[in-house]
Specification:
This protein is α/β, with parallel strands linked by helices. It has a single domain (about 10-180), classed as Rossmann fold. Helices cover about 25% and strands about 35% of the residues. The strands form 2 sheets. Strands 4-3-2-5-6-7 form a 6-stranded mixed β-sheet, sandwiched between helices. The chain has a 3-stranded antiparallel β-sheet with strand order 1-9-8, with helices on one face. It starts with 7 loop residues before the first strand and ends in an 8-residue tail after the last strand. It binds inosinic acid and magnesium ion (MG). Magnesium ion (MG) binds near residues 46 and 102.
Length: about 180
């Protein structure tokens, strides 16, 4: 067996709790979107595992599309200046859009995305965020669906990375050694 990785700290959300909560969110979303025209938009790359697990548990029809964004700033703090690396494949006008995010930290990325998507005139626009941190409340951003509310700390796993690593962990852990964080 290899030595434990010193970057991986306390497990904040173990795999079973994560999967149970994803199931609850999927049930809630399935209930709310019954009979509607659901388009699920994932924000790459952090939301990949979450969105994959979530949509497989939906009991309503949906379509999937993706955006990739990068926010300028250090690896741990976004600046609010967001660059679209990959835009949606299709227009969203008139669609019931659910934007799926990994984590809302400062909320700057989300508020940019919401403004951008709202300008394309969807019929409705809601947010499902796996994680939120206290900073998001300062911007008055409320996600309709939230997996877990975390304290203000940097986390890795289940899609969340530091320098593109640790996304594949099946649980969410605190980043233990801040020297690993760069930026
Ligand atoms: P915000 O603009 O500050 O809300 O940051 C949003 C983006 O920063 C997220 O979509 C993540 O890509 C990244 N991010 C924020 N907090 C964390 C974290 O704890 N771990 C990994 N990535 C994070
Ligand atoms: Mg991200």
């Amino acid at each position: 067996m290899s030595a434990p990785d010193p970057a991986i700290g306390e497990v904040l959300v173990p795999e079973d709790r994560l999967q149970r909560r994803v199931g609850e969110l999927a049930a809630e979303i399935s209930h709310d979107y019954a009979g509607r025209d659901l388009l699920v938009i994932g924000v790459l790359k952090g939301a990949i595992f979450f969105i994959a697990d979530l949509v497989r548990r939906l009991t309503v029809p949906c379509e999937l599309d993706f955006m990739a964004v990068s926010s300028y700033g250090s690896s741990r703090h976004s600046s609010g200046v967001v660059r679209i690396l990959k835009d949606l494949d299709h227009p969203i006008a008139g669609r019931d859009v659910l934007l799926v995010e990994d984590v809302v930290d400062s909320g700057l990325t989300l508020s940019y995305l919401l403004r951008n998507l709202a300008s394309r005139e969807p019929a409705s626009l809601e947010v499902c965020s796996l994680l939120t941190k206290p900073g998001a409340e300062r911007l008055n951003l409320d996600s309709r669906y939230v997996g877990f509310r975390l304290p203000d700390c940097f986390v890795i796993g289940y899609g969340l990375d530091i320098g593109e690593r640790y996304r594949q962990l099946p649980y969410i852990a605190r980043l233990a050694d801040p020297s690993q964080a760069g930026g």
